[in-house]
Automatic annotation (TrEMBL):
GO terms for biological process: copper ion homeostasis. The keyword 4Fe-4S does not apply. The lineage of its organism: Bacteria, Bacillati, Bacillota, Clostridia, Peptostreptococcales. Pfam families: MctB. Residues 29-63 form a coiled coil. It comes from the Bacteria. The chain crosses the membrane at residues 7-29. GO terms for cellular component: membrane. It comes from Peptacetobacter hiranonis (strain DSM 13275 / JCM 10541 / KCTC 15199 / TO-931). Keywords: Coiled coil, Membrane, Transmembrane, Transmembrane helix. This is Copper transporter.
Length: 290
């Protein structure tokens, strides 16, 4: 869990400032009685400030230890009771699983979570990096008879076809390896939530997001679909910041029980927006009803 160190930094800085001023005063002591009185008063005031800062630090330290204790107790409770807490939570929920820049390592995990808690996977849709290739976009336009000019056009087309339930029309894009669609149900158009797994090893997540993911999120939101971005705690690259800016919920630790609980709670509610998990970007460990 991230702990804000601001109080320690400010306090330590104040302590060194006080000591520095005290030393400076000491070096400039002279025989002037009035000056000595002023200096003595300053030193006394600094001593009082130092004592106050130390007392405040002790209080903050105790509060942090207490917070850590409560945090660890919550994690332990979730780990012990996760299945009981989530059993049947996704009953009746139809969820699409989307992966960008290829099939990420979390796709199977996400589908497993959805099925384990009685939800159903509408389809698995993989957007490959080829969908950002300008030459392939031109070729896709020729093969489909559509007027594709950009990656955004192709993404919008894909979801429009899914909405019609006509998966066969996406065959040209699959032949060009721009996408891979695995229908998990007969009615792929029937889904209300989408869990997105983004590439975890990008050296420039903002660039990657802007070239593909943002079009996926934008289209889904225009169709009133609930969007959650999910990643593992150990992901080398985090997309939380980019997805959060686009009003999507995020979970950064689906490889942990608390992360699974967060994901299930978000899909069940289909309304909450926030960043959940263990990273510094998380607003809380798990979603909490206000």
């Amino acid at each position: 869990m991230h702990i804000n160190m601001k109080y320690y930094i400010v306090s330590i800085g104040a302590i060194f400032l006080a000591l520095g001023i005290g030393i400076l005063v000491g070096f400039n002591l002279n025989n002037n009685e009035e000056m000595n009185k002023q200096q003595a008063a300053i030193i006394e005031q600094l001593d009082e400030e130092f004592s106050s800062i130390k007392e405040e630090n002790d209080t903050i330290s105790a509060d942090l230890k207490n917070t850590d204790k409560k945090y660890n107790a919550l994690v332990a409770y979730v780990n012990e009771n996760a299945d009981a807490l989530m059993t049947g939570s996704l009953s009746g929920k139809k969820v699409a699983v989307v992966s960008t820049y290829g099939r990420t390592e979390n796709v199977d995990k996400l589908k497993e979570i959805i099925n384990q808690y009685d939800g159903s996977v509408a389809f698995e849709l993989i957007f490959n990096k080829e969908i950002t290739d300008k030459e392939l976009i031109k070729e896709a336009a020729e093969k489909t008879g559509e007027k594709f000019k950009s990656t955004e056009d192709v993404v919008n087309y894909v979801f429009d076809i899914v909405k019609r339930g006509n998966a066969e029309s996406l065959a040209p894009l699959e032949e060009l390896k721009m996408i891979d669609l695995n229908s998990e149900s007969e009615d792929i158009a029937n889904f209300s939530s989408v869990v997105i797994s983004a590439l975890s090893e990008s050296s420039d997540p903002a660039k990657q997001f802007n070239e593909l993911d943002k079009f996926v999120v934008s289209k889904l939101k225009s169709e009133n679909k609930y969007v959650v971005e999910a990643q593992s705690k150990g992901a080398k690259t985090s997309y939380v910041e980019q997805y959060a800016k686009n009003k999507a919920a995020t979970v950064d630790n689906i490889d942990e029980k608390t992360g699974v609980l967060s994901l299930v709670a978000l899909i069940q509610d289909e309304n909450l927006v926030g960043n959940f998990g263990r990273l510094d970007t998380a607003s809380s460990l798990i979603p909490m009803e206000k």
